Amino acid sequence: MIAIPDRTPLVRKFFDRPVLEVAPDLLGRLLVRITPDGPIALRLTEVEAYDGPNDPGSHAYRGRTARNEVMLGPPGHVYVYFTHGMSSRSA
């Protein structure tokens, strides 16, 4: 039997928990964006979780900046960054 994923939109309260609890609950969920050409949907198959000012790997570790402000704001917002020059080629 194939499980049908829950398509109920997540409310902000879902995200108002510690990041290390939220991250695994996002796996398998759909991210949907409505565009003029129709909806675009993708399934989250991998997530990363950084514990803000408590995690040296986080862009928020050294405090609030214009770049990372959304990470330290209210829950339910997304921080997106582009990693320039990333490549799967090996040396």
UniProtKB/TrEMBL annotation:
One annotated GO molecular function: alkylbase DNA N-glycosylase activity
Q: Keywords for this entry?
A: DNA damage, DNA repair, Hydrolase
Q: Which GO terms describe its biological process?
A: base-excision repair
The record, for InterPro entries, names: Formyl_transferase-like_C_sf, MPG, MPG_sf
Q: Note the superkingdom of the native organism.
A: Bacteria
- Family listed: Belongs to the DNA glycosylase MPG family.
Write the protein's name: 3-methyladenine DNA glycosylase
Species of origin: Streptomyces colonosanans
